[in-house]
Amino acid sequence: MPFEDLQYAKIDHHREIRRGFPEIIFCAGKTDEQILGIARGIRDKGHAVLGTRCPREQFHALSSRLAGARYFPDARIFFIPHGEVEAGSTEKIVVVTAGTADIPVAEEAAVTAECLGITTERIYDVGVAGIHRLFPFLDRIGAAAVVIAVAGMEGALPGILAGLTDRPVIAVPTSVGYGASFHGVAPLLAMLNSCAGGIGVVNIDNGFGAAYLAALIVRRIEAAARPAKEKG
User: According to a count of CB atoms within 10 Å of the terminal CB, is the N or C end of the chain lower?
Assistant: First the structure.
């Protein structure tokens, strides 16, 4: 199980075989040189490079040494593709937000999924304060393989979606809200206690984790459908 020892990091070059995706860099807390060293190690082994939680200033400091990197400021993600960019998946995910303030976390989810090769659609600002805004999009939501629901405040949106569709819903609580939201703890607990079935909950503001889980589900759906298509 090969890994590359950089002293400050052990790059897991075996991860794509085990998990389907190469190691991804969590940039927060790392120096510019550490990020650069890890990125080069991943790229030199023939993998695409995805870095999350990378502030704009840090990317600008690194960009001249990360050839081919594209930066997504809302998501705080940089991506270096390897070879030809693959076409999107046949199945898609939909990322839905309760409010506009939830978009940065939603963009982390959407961009991560797209960098992992998953077709992604965005539907933003359809929360329960004006639930009628959601209804025109239910057909599009119901056509997705997985729904990622991003919400702060009282965190009600995932339960609403799970009650209106048979798609699995991945709930992402955000730290958006007033004092009693406790920086996302209130929506987290609300999502964990939803009476609608079929909801999985990731950590507060963890758009990346939601996208990774959704991508694994989509890959399994596509793998299961492949033998049937080949027989047909």
Answer: C
Helix axes 157-164, 185-192, angle to 10 degrees: 30
In 10 A of CB 140, how many CB atoms? 13
Residue 84: predicted pLDDT: 54
What is the distance between the alpha carbons of residues 201 and 135, in angstroms, rounded to a whole number?
Answer: 23
pLDDT in tens, 21-41: 889 999 999 999 999 999 999
* Residue with tokens 């309760």, as numbered in its chain: 98
For residues 177 and 188, give the distance between their C-alpha atoms in angstroms, rounded to a whole number: 12
Domain boundaries, the chain: 3-80, 92-220
Q: What is the pLDDT of residue 85?
A: 52
- Full-model pTM: 0.91
Which residue carries 């860099």 as its tokens? Answer: 25
Is there a contact between 208 and 108 (Cβ–Cβ < 8 Å)?
A: yes
